[in-house]
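Dear colleague,

Thank you for sharing your sequence with our group. We've completed the structure prediction you requested, and as agreed, I am returning the results in plain text so they can be pasted directly into your records. Please verify that the sequence below matches your submission; if there's any discrepancy, let me know and we will rerun it promptly.
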Amino acid sequence: MRQATNSLATKEHKENKDVENKSGLLFRSFFWRAKEAYFCRPLLFTYFPCRAGENIDVKSQYLGRDFSSLLKPKSEFLGYIGSDYQRLRITFTSIAQDKKDHAVYRVRGYSVVKANTNGFEGIIVVDKISRLREMHYGADDELKNAGIQAEGILTAKYELRENPEQKHSGKFTGTMTLNWYVPQNGKLLCDDIEDYSDNYNNNQYAGIWTAYKSRIENKVANWGEYRIPFSGDLDIGAGEFSANPKYKDRGW
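Please find the predicted structure tokens below.
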């Protein structure tokens, strides 16, 4: 029994590493294709202030904490698939931290493209957890004396596999980011401190969708809360997301 359990754990660890390696390669390929149109801005800071040099690695300190309630969005995901910005709807029905490997989160949900709905299962694997050295306190620093303990960014790789028995099915792979903070009471929360700002966003996913049928080309597939990373001229909103009317026939 112990041997079987160890074998399963070894297999699961290998699968997690494979996802991390493969999705990393896929994301880098996607990033280099997209960078020219976005002035080489890294995905992590497409909308979030670029403070990469000021972040502090706190993965060992925070990995044991449960980010599952933050990874499940509080609002509807906005998303698109393909170079023509076809509307993509992603819904997480459940997400839970693995009891043995705290870097892994088990995800279930479904995707909707046009009239096609596909259920999926997969994992999100935490890559980095960073704390911002310089925190933000909202409009006019209204929360400066509120006792905020920390603010930071979690980055992870993900692989979400649709049911192969369903029509037009495949898998989503890529990189995601989550902005978090810890208020005075020590609870881990989504960072909504500056949700009033024009470019506010959270839970940003950028990657590709790969069909199980090899003859179908990979498609860019991005989604997020409030804004969508690398959305080009799809999003023409100033204060909030607003779909360009030219993509109305793409589900917008």
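Summary note from our side: Helices lie at 2-34, 59-62, 68-71.

Kind regards,
the structure core
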